[in-house]
Structures are given as C-alpha cells and as structure tokens.
Amino acid sequence: MIRVVVADDHAAIRSGLSMILGSADDIEVVGEAADGEVALGQARALRPDVVLMDIRMPGTDGIAATREITAAGLAHVLVLTTFDIDEYVFGALQAGASGFMLKSATAAELTAAVRAVAAGDGVLAPQVTRTLIDAFAAVPPTPARRPAGLEDLTDREREVLDCLGDGLTNQQIAGRLFIGETTVKTHVSRVLTKLGVSSRVQAAIIARELPAS
C-alpha cells in the first residue's frame, strides 16, 4: 500500500485529491496538510511514501517544505500545482522533488504519477518537460564543472546515471542494462548518495550537463 500525505491550502482541493487517490486499491491517504509546515510535520510523524505537495501555500511554501522533506529522506515529493511557471518548476526540482504535475492532470494521470514516484521513478508533466527542454536549449554551452562525487561512481553506476539523464524509468534501465529492477534501485540509490542529491531528477540534470564521453 502506498501511503500519501496531501498538502494544499484549499480544503476542497485537498478533499478532492484525497478522494481520487483513496479510490485506488493500492493508495492510502494517511494525512492532509494546509501548509508546508504541517506537511513537514506529518512527513516526520507518518513517514508516508509520497507527499503530494502544492507550491503556493501560506507560511512555509511547498518548495521550502519539499527541501526539508527530501533533505531528511522522509518521503518522495510529487509537486502538484496550477502553475507551470519556470521559477516554480526549477525551484521544486532543485529542492529535490521527484516529480511535477499540473492540477489539470486527470485522475488516472495523478494516480499513475503517485505510483511512479513511490517506486522511485521521476515524473514530469508534458508541459513541464517542454519547459526544461527549452531551458536547456536556451543556455549556451559553458565549460562543464564535474560535480562532487562523480569520480566515486563505478562504471555501472555511471551507466545508470546516463540512463537517468535519458529520462528512463527503473524498468527501462533494467532492460537497457540487462539487470533486475531491484538492482537498478540499489544503483540509483548509490548514485544519488554519491552525487549528494535527493532525487533522480536532480541526478538527471547533472547527467545532461556532463560533456559527451
């Protein structure tokens, strides 16, 4: 069972999201939060698998709460917002969010995203993916700075990092490298630890910024 905390400052939206997720046989909503501080407290107390996090909330906003939750390893965070403004996308991903979905997502898309994030995969709404691609394309090439920890990766872990840069899921990585999904999860965890990041999306960004070998 995937345990989820829903964080949104609008009670009606929280209730609707909880109903959508709770209708899935494999998802249980264990808590709701009206702001980032409460979401952080519930992540600490309830240890959910996923926190579904709104960005614009009073007090502690979703980005600040995401940073605290992911830094402490309390849960995966799936950001869900009405907005796809660049600063929100980059802020959420830099804070360690595992995914970014818009509130216009269907119930099926939302539950699929929660399942993917709980399984350790990254999820980006198509609109957000386009934003990131455009951003990469708009930035002129600069001398690459090799991130700390890169030299500590084994050859296999470097292959996994390259797969993350290509946006592959754990299942797809397993197929490309001819290894089991459990082994992939182990390698991904080690890659994140060695690079000092908290989400596979952050690792993917590092991989994309590396010069071609």
Quick take:
With 213 residues, the protein is of the alpha/beta class.
3D architecture notes:
With 213 residues, the chain is of the alpha/beta class. Helix content is 52%, strand content 14%. It is built from ten helices and six strands. A six-stranded parallel beta sheet has the order 2-1-3-4-5-6, with helices on both faces. Strand 4, helix 4 (86-94) and strand 5 form a beta-alpha-beta unit. The chain is globular, with a radius of gyration of 17 Å. The model has no long low-confidence stretch (mean pLDDT 87).
In the predicted model, the low-confidence regions spanning at least 5 consecutive residues are none
> What is the helical fraction, as a range of percent?
40-55%
- H/E element string? EHEHEHEHEHEHHHHH
Mean pLDDT: 87
- In angstroms, what separates the terminal alpha carbons? 41 Å
What composes the largest sheet?
Answer: 6 strands, parallel
SSE layout:
Elements: E1 2-7, H1 11-22, E2 27-33, H2 36-46, E3 50-53, H3 62-71, E4 76-81, H4 86-94, E5 99-102, H5 107-118, E6 123-124, H6 126-138, H7 155-165, H8 170-177, H9 181-195, H10 200-209
Parallel strand pairs: 1-2, 1-3, 3-4, 4-5, 5-6
What structural keywords apply?
single chain, globular, 10 helices, 6-stranded parallel beta sheet, 213 residues, alpha/beta
